[in-house]
Amino acid sequence: MPYLPDGKSVGVVTLTNSVSLWDAQTMMPKENLTAMGMRNLWPEVSPDGRFLAVGGLDGYLRVWDFTERRVVTSQPAWPEPDQVDHSADWVWLSNFSRDGSRLLTGNMTFPVRLIVEWEVPAWKPLARWGIELAGGGALSPDGKLFACGRYDGKVIIWDIENGRSRAEMVHQGEVCALAFSPDGRLLATGSNYGTVVLWDTQDWQALTPPLPGHRLAIYCIAFSHDGTRLATSGGSREEAVLLWDVATRRQIATLRAEGTTFRGVTFSPDDSTILVQSVERDLYIWRAPSWDKIKAVEAPERERAKE
Questions:
Q1: pLDDT single digits (tens) 93-138
Q2: What is the pTM of this model?
Q3: Residues near 51 by Cβ (< 8 Å), separated by ≥ 6?
Q4: Which domains can be identified in the chain, with CATH numbers?
Q5: What's the N-to-C CA distance of the chain in angstroms?
């Protein structure tokens, strides 16, 4: 459920697999993008807010242009024909590159996932390659690297320009979720063991041992826009979202919700709100208290400190 850059709307794929815009304050639907159809799964919004791209349950990539108010592309996510029928493949999307010029799609086949790099806004495929045992993935902010987690615990860093592996690391367990920090200096990975690892993207060394947090798998990771916080969502209502301090590597909050599995965790543009969606397609939102409320809670402690 990505926020639009103005922070006023959220792109949501509903229980009927249609696409809607919801009001970010009231969390009520305000516009249905009916032209996008009802075979949608995975939404992403471009950094400039112009495009909302959605991966389909039918092997299609669909893109809504907010400027032109129409669907600007609806095409198979596997543009080069091969011997495999991908019409029933679910389409996974990476994040957009920071400048909005690149987006990756991947299918859900096993053991080899097909990855396609797309040129934006032409929506033409630039490159295509296969990755074995691929789980989650993330595109670096500069659009030059693709970090891919695998079912065997490996994390592979791919060079987008030449399609070759640049580095290989190991995070114990199936690597389900990955995210680059906004400045590109860190990569966070989460596994089905419920642990988080932070990696230095200069030398690809782990900055910490696996950090325990979730009792079950981690399915999504997101950095705050200022890079100071990390949110992880997983497979337990008691630990729907965990919030981490990036500098200290410590868990600072546990956010609970109803449901079974939680994906698509995201921060609002001003980082004051965390949003997550359950597999039941229910939305949960947490807003940070205002500074006035924080000061009111801290006031008694300050008074006691003076005594």
A1: 888 999 999 999 888 766 677 888 999 999 999 988 888 767 778 9
A2: 0.87
A3: 45, 63, 64, 65, 66, 72, 100, 120, 121
A4: 1-129 (2.130.10.10), 133-152+164-307 (2.130.10.10)
A5: 48
